[in-house]
Amino acid sequence: MDDFEVKPILESLIFVSDTPVRLDTLIEILPELNKEAILEGIDKIKQEYAEGSKGFELIEVSGGYQFRTKPRWAEWVNRLKKAKGVKLSRSALETLAIVAYRQPIIRPEIEQIRGVDSGWVLRTLLEKNLIRMMGRKDIPGRPIVYGTTKAFLELFSLNTLSDLPSLKEIEPPPEPESLSKEELPETRAESIPQDASPPGKGAVS
After folding, report:
1. What count of other Cβ atoms lies within 10 Å of the Cβ of residue 204?
2. pTM for this predicted structure
3. Is it true that 3-81 and 86-196 share their CATH fold?
4. Between 20 and 30 A from 2 (CA), which of 67, 105, 112, 153?
């Protein structure tokens, strides 16, 4: 298979997928190509769509590759789709931030940080598939352990959890009376947009 065929094949496979396509998946369904050839083809696609005249781009998100509309064209795409972003309340954002930065974490630990009951907001985040139950902690009562999902990574355009901004990047300089550790997740939550567009083919990153 020559270079002329590799790029359009990869382009087609990534375009038709509703979820990010992992490199392992591409290697599996393209046995006639080695890993290096696939990565080279992906790099060429990235370079081509990085041009300003292109309406979308190829990005790495949630451990795979996906085409997404460039942010500068979001206004016009949203006019066509008339789609509302994922709405999250402040309490949901706060809880999601705690789970994202402190996972694996159990409900009592979340409630200790927030200072309020978090049962309903955890259910909301589970329904939106932004967090998941990872099992149970081996302590009395065997509480459920929570962590984030691939949908969380896709929604916030993250490839892995290591792409989350560090606290130094998102926290403002401390006031004379600095915040306690328990209050830090609230600051983290404020760094997450409250109206994020859902991921998927043609989604706005």
Report:
1. 23
2. 0.65
3. yes
4. 67
